[in-house]
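Hi there,

I know you've been waiting on this one. I reran it after we fixed the sequence typo, so this is the corrected version. Both the input and the resulting structure follow.
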Amino acid sequence: MAGHIQDRWYQPKRDSDGKVVRDAKGRVVKESSPLHGTGMRYKVRYPDPSGRERSEMFPDKQLSRAKAFLAKQQHDVLSGTYLDPDAGKLKFREYSATVMLGRSRDESSVQTWAAVLKNLVYPNLGDLELVAIGTDAIRKWLGWMNGQDRPPAQSYQRQAYDLVSSILEAAVADQRIRANPCRDKSIRRPAVGPKKVTPWPESKMWKIELALSPRDQVAVTLGAGLGLRQGEIFAFSMDNVDRVKMVYRCSRQVVKVGSVQKFKFPKGHKERDIPLGLGVLETLDAYAENYPPVSVTLPWGEQDGRKYETVNVLVTDDESELHTARKFNTGVWIPAFARAGLDYQQDYSDGMHALRHLFASSMLHQGVSIKELAAFLGHADEAFTLRTYVHLMPNSYERARLAVDAMFKPRRQAVAIDPSTG
């Protein structure tokens, strides 16, 4: 069956014997059918690659469109590029749910993806069929995000865009749509401007440390002395200190999934060894004498068979309870700025992550390579470390001049010339 177009409004005329009537040239004579003037006029019938008959309806005066559609379907079947027209009629909301089932089952990631889809994607794209999401729909969606009274941050918009693009890419792989509209050259991915890190001066760090209570001061040591993230600080354990190799094995962090705190691997599921300075170790030992570690058991947030993890945690509150990020930030960290006589900047430059930036800055100043720094910080991509901290790397011009002078030794000291005397 090669496929054909049925005119539902007309049918072959038959004589009293039921035979098809033909004109003088042998052509079949047509007459109005019982369906004349009602519904779609043209019905395109064609076989799919399995031999199953498919059909598509077109209205009156759309015969040329019907012919073009039939030709395309026949070409796609023969060339092996045929797509089932019904496969793309699934709504984006329904399809994305199946795609996300095949993604990482990490609870934190699942929670983040669900929030992005709920808040930034489903209100605009959720009820559209996959085949209806073309470049125009993507442009309207991007415009909708930016048109809100309080547009989401560009980084949040990019996260949503990348998620939508990955789902549509899966639809292409599943042969539900022919192309991913997010990859079209006319579509611009939300831009995230470069964020230049400005490390604190050491004096600011010491002011904040003095403004914290003696029990909380160790957070500064762990952030600026080891470059730990906040969740890694709350999960810090002296049991992970190797006094022979003088390294700290960062093997876990504390996260909050819903209302439940859990231990899990550091960001990127990547453990790492961080050099441990003698001064940092002395501070930690002295702190542990005054505030002994507390044994804390939490659910284990990884899918590796473990249900719970017990850790001797060093950093706890006055009731020897594990800190939460929100409680520590609002009740401990931010108030310390007022006590130190400093204004707290709401642009995240004064968050606890500033200690991590200070650690990175000091490493680069001492000649630590980007590759080594990326490993110490737990970055999966050295290029990210370079983009973030390249402007903090010490100027190499003077070192280059000294290297050349070692080969071509100057015979006399350089003399400064006073421009006023010529």
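Quick highlight: Residues 412 and 418 are 18 Å apart (CA to CA).

Best,
R. S.
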